[in-house]
């Protein structure tokens, strides 16, 4: 690659010189007659040939033979009759003339010239008259054709050591002529661009040792070669700058050791008596190092641990001063400027390919560009990377590319190399989606590793990417540590996590206890047992913001139509930013929103003038409250269902942890207070990193730190992936996975009560394996109702707001002990059977049948 780059760069430099000469030559060739500086000849642009300067050359007089002149290393011949006619017709402009006569020798003038007719026979002419004798006035033709293009004229000059007298680039001519004479290169016409370019450069660099070519060229273009040496040196220092816009490495790294130094590199550097030291990347592996990743819908957090218990968050972007805790929330955003160019480079190598930051940009760099361009390039930005986990496009996997970029920020000559990666996953992800998430990150992270790592089998045995824990479980692991939970032997801490992020709301329920010999290993100090994990996949902070932005647009639809503005993605994105202060509960957000003017995109793709939208903040806030309440209701339903199956010790407290940035909302806090009202068995823990969390810690006697690297409502998930690693001291026991199911059931299933309300029988927390008594079988049919609305858990949902299925049995049974049993069997399916329950067994009368819910 270095050899190819050197050839490419030197070729480009020579082509630049050729282009300079050619552009000047175009101006010179606008004249018919061009005198040469280093030869006693002049060029005739009409005849396409050279004539001798007869002040220095003597034409012979007519005789029986024409002796070919040996003059200025050119090939000479007699003029054709046609050429001579042209010359006579233009004789007034001929450079060397005395009245109507041509200079044919020093101080000798004549009009009688010897020429050749169409049959090649000798003729003597004086203008349009034939005569019996004349001078042998020679011509050196470029070619025997009249359509010779200007590029070929200039090439002839360079190949024959001819330099125009009026050129201001005589030194450049000399350089190009010397290169042509002393190397194997050639100058050829570029038919596409209609210019001149160098060819056969690979014959100059005829082996893998680039010095063979540079040695030949250095005497002619020393500065070009020296520039390449400096460029080679700078490329080593900028090897990551081009990929991820990181600062250049200090020059000291060339002497202490650089991963990409090769023999070819030092061959080039040695031209200026420089050299660089190679360092094997294997030496920079962080033994015991581990990286935790929380890949979020809005932001992604990366944390790492080396040879201590300290876990440190990482900023994914160009280093900056005055970082805050929120800066470690790296935007899950990608700008796609030139995907084709990026993927061509990306697929060209299996290790650290020469991709360009300008082609695809991520994280803070992408966000900065998103905010700077007034959304004009909105459709170049990809902000739903997490949903790409469901895509099947193998040609471009956004998650893999994002992971590759993360890998470049993690693995470099400043940080070293990490081989162990732990990634959290959403509760709602099926096994297939988890595997796809892990596989995508594995491919991208591998691509960021040096070739020496990838090709070493023993080293790669240590490489791993594992989806080790769900996002809410990872959060609560961090929260237990931050809030100082340390259960003693026999003590169990009951918990529930409401993880409200940008893309969804995930719930996790279980107990945190001291490890014991019966269930845990000797290495474990504590155990986390998960008994319930559920999700509201449509409840996410960014999703809610998009809903109220769309609502605000529709409320102003008549006003906006007059401005030729319609609803589209980038206009919604602009309004989302306008309403963000409402969602984030900023101080005086109503005043801020109502004073702010925005510019939206019109149908002609132009920005409008500044607009003042009418925003009903109270109505939008009520919308948020109503939708969030559905999620909170679903959380408490899941909590009750989960802990109804767990034997608790009397009136044990259930500790509720709020997680995710969206959980910091005032609306969330008020709704939890509402649902916990009058309940003494709940204790709520505010999102980490908030002032309320610090106050709670002080209540518990925990020392509070303002260190920006401490876990927050968002970053704590990534911390938890490392704390909860398999080699750690917490045994994570996920009872949800014991049922061999991909995820929880998606529906509430039930029947109609006497008040025409929906009565819930099966919920998303119901056990996939357990049959539930549903209805008698005394009639050979029954009705079954279902919905996805969390309000179903309150048994107050109107029956006309849910769906109904009519089911027919094979028979009707008069025996009242024969009933219909139902149970969930997949995310969208239930089974029913007719049976008689005898103790713990069933006498099955009609075999189970599956019902698909839509």
Question: What's this entry about, in short?
Answer:
This protein has 854 residues and is an alpha+beta fold. Strand 35 and strand 36 (841-852) form a beta hairpin.
- In CATH, the topology of the domain at 283-470 is named Nucleotidyltransferase, domain 5
E-strand count:
36
Number of helices: 25
**Ends distance:** 56 Å
Estimated radius of gyration: 41 Å
Under the CATH scheme, the architecture of the domain at 283-470 is 2-Layer Sandwich
Structural class: alpha+beta
User: How do the strands line up in the largest sheet?
Assistant: 1-2-3-11-4-8-9-10
CATH hierarchy, class of the domain at 283-470: Alpha Beta
Portion in helices: 25-40%
Averaged pLDDT, please?
Answer: 88
Question: Which segments are poorly predicted (pLDDT under 50) over 5 or more consecutive residues?
Answer: none
The amount of beta strand, in percent, is: 15-25%
Q: Name the CATH homologous superfamily of the domain at 283-470.
A: ATPase, nucleotide binding domain
